[in-house]
Amino acid sequence: MSLGNSGVGFETARQLSINYGTHVIMGCRSEIKCTNAANVIDNELIATKSNGSVTPMLIDLANLDSVKSFATQLEGRKVDVLFNNAGYAPESKSPVNDLGLNPAFNDMHLAHFFLSEQLLKEHPKLRVVYTSSGTHHCCALPFAFVPSFVLELLPDMHRPGCIDDEFLSTGIRSPNDAAAYFSCKLANVLHALKIPRHHPHATSIAIDLGWVGTKIQPWMQTQLSPTSLGLMRSANVGVLPMINAILSTDDELLDGLSEGRKLSDGGIIMNTLGKTEEALTMYHWIHADLTRERMIKVADKLWVESVKILKANGY
């Protein structure tokens, strides 16, 4: 199941159904766009005589009732993989939503968290694949290499690690700030890390997507774009790590990790080359005093707070 009718969501659904004969449910916010995207793929499926299929379904990640309805409609269907892909470039200072939550946090983390938990109830062996981003490293990079007195001069500089106690108490209930996208993409990684700890038969992978030309920013869609100049990978190439994460066997996912590593030990990262690695182990995280052990504790707190918010709102 894939979320998205454009960009990497659409291209992942297209390649999975056409090239690999899989049955994909496309979750989209717009009925018209979802149907049109599915029709494009259907026409190619007919032309290629593929055994795959696509089914458009509505889901609005800004509305948790919509997320619940979507999960309910899937009851009784066999779901092997959930591809949590939906994302956007948040506008700074966007006000809190009807639940009093930061809109980026709600749409790009909490809704994905809720959907994953709903599906895992019926499908304990579910594989959850996240489109994260290399930008989650921005939560550590400046604090590892830039002197503190310089950081203090930079406007709207986010806190080391992006997600901390202050963020979980007040930040998620505040308007978007300049680091909203970084925080959400790190939240995707932290959620993926913890899924197998709460659901031992499930697997989870967060994709370090890299720089891929999509519709997330207007300047990516111009005729003279970074993609056309060869500075960005096109979506049909950029989705290859997703394809690897979705279709690889457990043994293939564990290849290259430490001996004795099990997928139930925690979620993993897949880099832009389609290779798996441990999250939050790079030098800049450690040098910024944001060790993996410290961030796993943050992931625990994020999980607890996510459950608390859902329960407080009747979900």
Q: What is the residue-averaged pLDDT?
A: 90
Give the CATH level 1 class.
Alpha Beta
Assigned CATH architecture: 3-Layer(aba) Sandwich
Helix run count: 13
Q: At the third CATH level, what is the topology name?
A: Rossmann fold
Total number of distinct structural domains? 1
Low-confidence stretches: 216-220, 224-231
Oligomer: single chain
Helical content (DSSP H or I, runs of 4+):
40-55%
Instruction: Name the shape in a single word.
Output: globular
Task: Please provide a written account of the structure.
By secondary structure, the chain is an alpha/beta fold. The chain has one domain (59-208, 239-312): Rossmann fold (3-Layer(aba) Sandwich). Helix content is 44%, strand content 10%. The chain is built from 13 helices and eight strands. The strands form two sheets. It has a five-stranded mixed β-sheet with strand order 4-5-6-7-8, sandwiched between helices. The radius of gyration is 19 Å and the shape is globular.
Descriptive tags:
315 residues; alpha/beta; three-stranded parallel beta sheet
SSE layout and pairings?
Blueprint: E1 2-3, H1 7-20, E2 23-28, H2 31-48, E3 53-58, H3 64-73, E4 81-84, H4 103-122, E5 127-131, H5 141-145, H6 148-151, H7 165-169, H8 180-198, E6 203-207, H9 235-238, H10 240-247, H11 250-254, E7 268-270, E8 276-277, H12 283-287, H13 292-312
Parallel strand pairs: 1-2, 2-3, 4-5, 5-6, 6-7
Antiparallel strand pairs: 7-8
